[in-house]
Design brief:
This protein has about 500 residues and is an alpha+beta fold. Helix content is about 70%, strand content about 10%. It contains 16 helices and seven strands. Helix 2 packs antiparallel against helix 3, helix 4 packs antiparallel against helix 5 and helix 14 packs parallel to helix 15. The protein is elongated, with a radius of gyration of 46 Å. It starts with a helix and ends with a strand. About 0% of the residues have low confidence.
Length: about 500
């Protein structure tokens, strides 16, 4: 109980510290904002007091950078009221805060010292003390170099120009200002250079320095003329680049249009060569080609026509089947024609139902494989060994398609496996949801260059009594419809090994 009370007290104190720190930070930010508001209203004394309070609180909190910024603003408000002694005394306090800062790096301290030294320069310029102002300018140069801050280095050039112009050193002022203007102009910061020129002219007018105003205005006019030429060159270059890009885009579109026209012409020639069954579909295809001129729509329409062709062939086959069944199946030609009609109808149905999902059921794989292997025992040649390597497990698959594929592959194996050979049916689990059937026979095998062709329908004209060549293409379509695949293992050279990959 005592332990819990101590923990609670510690957490409560930590929460109070966090709230106090947050409150202090908010208070410092509010003091700075109030000081800026009072300064804008012209309430110099109030603004100065608020800046001093913000400086003290920032320093006490360890935020020296923010404190120095408030300190130099308070200093400027001191000498704005001609309180130069108070301004110099307060700047010593700001420098002391910088030197006591152990968290800031050397370059960061140099940047802060640059700000305080700059305020001293402003005061000595106002007091017309050339030597003391020169000393501050030298210190500013050391601090700017040590800070490695490009903005301070550019600001130093500006203050050098102000110093030299103020004390009648026109040539040196021109050199400093020219260096600064060239640096900003090289980086295409034209607006900043223009702003610096305007500020320089205003300062000359405020200090009643006619020489400085005249020199600044003369330099400003010359710079303005040169910049107008640079801007014109930049705009011309940008315009030329834009024109070149537009020309490249037009050329690219022309090439694309020409390519599409060639594709359309090729499709038109192909459409003319289609068989009579595709005449209607070909006319529709041509009509859409000339209307749309878009390759994407042409391809989509071609797919639609292929589906119509498959449905058309399937309907013809369905209508022929009753008539074919009335013929004598013992006649080889009749049997071949009946099998071909059945295969055509199956293949067409598969092509027409590519987007339809298949139902799955729980299959006892070992039992199914044993039954299918038993079906071919009376069909194999003498002394052919049959082996089933399937673990006893159940898998969610489409039984109709799996049974059809395995039965066809085993029948093929029984037909082509010679005497003394062997046929093996394996089943393996390759992943969490991936399964694999392997049907192996020691027949003559299929040459590697023809292994892809055996899955393609209508590849060559055959004597139907010797087979129509649609069995394997139908099996391939069924496997793909189950989100799987049927392939031949090219590494197996002692016969043929079919691989059926399926996903449960």
């Amino acid at each position: 109980m005592i332990m819990k009370r101590k923990v609670f007290i510690m957490l409560f104190n930590l929460l109070l510290c966090c709230n106090f720190a947050f409150a202090q930070e908010v208070e410092m930010s509010e003091l700075q904002q109030r000081a800026e508001t009072e300064s804008q209203k012209g309430n110099i004394a109030n603004a100065r007091s608020l800046y001093i309070r913000a400086f003290e609180q920032y320093v006490n909190k360890g935020q020296t950078q923010e404190g120095v910024e408030c300190g130099v603003k308070a200093t400027a408000l001191y000498y704005k009221d001609n309180l130069y002694k108070e301004a110099f005394d307060f700047l010593r306090n700001v420098d002391q805060a910088i030197s006591s800062d152990r968290q800031s790096s050397g370059s960061k301290k140099s940047a802060m010292y640059y700000l305080t030294t700059k305020e001293r320069l402003q005061m000595y310029i106002r007091l017309r003390k050339s030597d003391r102002a020169q000393d501050q300018l030298n210190s500013m140069e050391k601090h700017a170099t040590a800070s490695k801050d490009e903005k301070l280095i550019n600001d130093l050039l500006y203050n050098k120009a102000i110093y030299h112009y103020t004390f009648g050193q026109t040539e040196k002022g021109n050199e400093a200002f020219k260096e600064m203007a060239n640096k900003l102009t090289a980086s295409k910061e034209y607006d900043k250079v223009d702003e610096v020129y305007q500020t320089l002219i205003k300062n000359g007018r405020r200090s009643n320095n006619a020489s400085m105003v005249a020199q600044s205005y003369s330099s400003y006019v010359l710079w303005k003329d040169s910049i107008n030429a640079l801007k014109l060159a930049d705009e011309t270059g940008a315009l030329k680049q834009r024109i070149a890009e537009n020309e490249a885009t037009i050329a690219e579109k022309d090439d694309s249009l020409a390519s599409r026209k060639m594709i359309i012409i090729g499709l038109c020639v192909l459409a003319v060569a289609l068989a009579a069954v595709l005449v209607v579909g070909g006319l529709i295809l041509l009509r859409f080609i000339f209307l749309t001129r878009k390759q994407k729509k042409t391809i989509r329409l071609s797919n639609e026509n292929n589906a119509l062709k498959a449905k058309f062939i399937s309907n013809i086959s369905a209508q022929l089947t009753p008539a074919l069944k009335k013929l004598d199946r013992n006649v080889p030609e009749v049997r071949a024609l009946q099998d071909f009609s059945e295969h055509i109808q199956t293949l067409s149905e598969l092509e027409c139902s590519t987007d339809e999902s298949l139902e799955k059921e729980d299959i006892q794989v070992a039992q199914l494989c044993e039954e299918l292997m038993d079906e071919i025992r009376g069909k194999v040649k003498p002394e052919v060994q049959l082996k089933v390597n399937v673990p006893k497990m159940s898998v969610m698959l489409n039984q109709k398609y799996v049974t059809h594929i395995l039965r066809h592959l085993l029948n093929n194996a029984a037909e082509y496996t010679p005497e003394g050979g062997h046929i093996t049916l394996d089943f393996k689990k390759r992943g969490v949801h991936k399964y694999q059937f392997l049907i192996l026979d020691t027949g003559c095998g299929i040459p590697e260059e023809k292994q892809e062709d055996v899955f393609k329908a209508f590849l060559e004209i055959k004597d139907l009594t010797k087979g129509d060549g649609l069995g394997l293409p139908i099996c391939k379509q069924m496997a793909m419809k189950m989100n799987g695949d049927l392939t031949i293992d090219p590494t197996f050279t002692k016969g043929t090994r079919f691989v059926l990959d399926l996903y449960a």
